[in-house]
Amino acid sequence: MTRLRILAIPKRFRALISQRMKIRITKQHIIKFFKRLGIAILSLVVIFFILNWIFPLPDKVEYSTMITDNKGELINAYLTKDQKWRMKTELEEISPLLQKTIIAKEDKYFYSHPGINPIAVGRAFFKNLFRMQRTSGASTITMQVARALEPGKRNIWSKIREMFRAFQLEIKYSKKEILQLYLNLVPYGGNIEGVKAASLLYFKKNPDHLSLAEITALSIIPNRPSSLVMGKNNDLIVQERNRWLRKFAADKVFTEKEIEDALAEPMNAVRGTVPHYVQHLSYKLKKQGDYSIKTHIDLNTQLKTEKLVEDYARSQRLKGIKNAAVIILDNKTHKVITYVGSSGFADTTDGGQVNGANAIRQPGSTLKPLLYAMCFDEGLLTPKLMMTDVPVNYQGYAPENYDQKFNGYVTVEYALEHSLNIPAVKSLQSLGHDKLIQKLSECNFKQIRIDQHKLGLSMILGGCGTTLEELTGLFSSFANKGVYFSPSYTSKDTIHKKVNVVSDAAAYMVDEILSKVNRPDFPLTWSATEKMPKIAWKTGTSYGRRDGWSIGFNKNYTVGVWCGNFSGVGVADLSGAEVATPLLFKIFNTIDYDSDEDWFSPPKDCEQRMVCSETGLPPGDNCTNKILDEFIPLISSTQQCNNRREVLLSADEKISYCKSCVPETGYKKKLMRITEPEMQAYFSENGMSYEKVPPHNENCEIIFKGNAPNITFPVNGSEYLISKKNPEPLMLTCKAALDVNKVYWYIDDKFYKAAHPAEKQFFAPTEGPVKISCTDDKGRNRNIRITVKFVNL
Ligand SMILES: [Zn+2]
Ligand SMILES: [Zn+2]
């Protein structure tokens, strides 16, 4: 069968040649002929591939960057470098209707020809030859793509090149991809290229939602882009559209009903503009270089929040606070649903184009919740544990509270609620700031990672650089059982970086503390009549009042608010509590007003226990007042309270004894509350009374002669010369017994500092005799005396 068919054609051929050449055609001749034909075809193929290698297809097309929201609607787009709206139509957006209409109009044999249509080419060639004029019509969709890729003068050579390119295209791409390229490159007049841009700009919809009438109208524009301008020549376009629709009817491409409906469809197309929503985020994402960026922005929430921010910023202008930024994170999906970089992108006087959401700013107190949660996990703290808020000094670093006051005894939860600085610095000191830096680095805090070797204890009071993006992401981990998920901005961010920041229990304790409304940073301006969904939040105010922060969360959302000036100017009225929090509340009221979501429930590893109200420690035998506290079994400290101890006193209560020096008779026992030396100092300085244990028996051998700390520097009885010009502090060192954890230094009987025995201390002495005392935590004391002289050195 095959052989017969092969031989069938050469039979006529054979006859023709044999007549002219007057030679006999033999079987050998035929074989030879086919061999030559084969070689010729092979050579052509080889030549094609060589040419293909030398002149590769110029198919790198730059498209406009398109940003879409969570519903796939265009929310922003950018012109290409050649100032075109050339938007990429995705394969799935080429609907069967669009495909069918374009092919019926442009290239009926698109699916069967190899890039060029030989019959059409032949016809056009003869027409050109005899009429000496150019006609179109021979161009296939593939050739039109070739022309769009290499625009320029049209002549016989460009036509040949187009055909070559058409073959290249057909070899490299599928038919559907070629159609996609065609739809992306076809010109629609002005700076609009491609069906997607045309569809969006004229009909405000994606190409897969176009009707037959709309597709037909669009398909006639490229033939006469200068005379058929949408919005200007609509009547002419409708005429031409209907002519084509009738042609489709005649060719039976569509049913009569379909054509009827299309003919009746009015055309109201006007040239629209490209939307420019969510400017800061769009611009940030555009830099990633993708043409199509699918964000998770919920446009409704975004626009409402933008309006709130704009109005709120306007209300703060009189105070000199001109900008604000907001991020809203969905806690369940970890998607960023709203991103406001400034109070108005168009505002050129106050730098509205600056993106405040990813600007590096000082975080104020906003890192404190993380610190305390980490301390809960290390067993260092529990919510009701008593801390001391009294002056401290860490090698010259003496933090102060926001109001420059000290509060004496405070619980951990009070310290966090009131954002006290000294307990925070003390907690960071005992946790180790390296651990905090490590955790923040894991949670993508970029500037902190860069500065990690420069940062010290002051970082917990805001002495470091963070962004609103980073802080909002971090806070959402408190709403996610202590697990951090890197926020997702686009559909590409599908794999979350997951970090176990703190335990479920520690996160819960922070949620509880930060959701109390009876706190000092509750905004005074917030009217009690306004309703609020329950949220937990933390405020922060940076040094010099340059930044006001308020970051809040519940189960549904984490909202980060920053207020300040892009110029960096500090403002006396700027604070996280009074400026940022009201905006935070307004946003929660708007986005989550009717939330029926429950509050966080206590996790399994968070239990309750009774503690002594005076120390927050599990009660000892003498503790009287007990309260309920949360703790983490096997983690939280189980050290018992021994705040109230039985003290041995003389009958007149003027002398105290230890077991070794107590006389056989004439003494009594008394339960007394023991106050640490640093608190004694705080109480005396503030004129507050406390229960004092009388001085220890002077003749006691243990306390005064036994294992009392040995002051190794300065040396007892020495004279120290200090430069008047550059007075340097004197060092204090001691050697204490092995069972000692803490020593207390006194200068001239005044408490100076509590420290670890191995820690060096420094103090600035006054001229003359100085008494230096060192007492250990067992009550053993040592005194030395030195003389200080100021001299001209
Ligand atoms: Zn107690
Ligand atoms: Zn004694």
Explain what this protein looks like in three dimensions.
The chain is α+β, with helices and mostly antiparallel strands and 793 residues long. Helices cover 34% and strands 18% of the residues. It is built from 23 helices and 27 strands. A 5-stranded antiparallel β-sheet has the order 7-6-14-13-12, with helices on both faces. The chain has a 5-stranded mixed β-sheet with strand order 21-27-26-23-24. A hairpin with a 5-residue loop joins strand 1 (65-68) and strand 2 (74-78). It is elongated and about 145 Å long. It starts with a helix and ends with a strand. 38% of the residues are buried. Mean pLDDT is 89; it is low at 1-8. The structure holds zinc ion (2 copies). The site of one zinc ion has 9 residues, from helix 23.
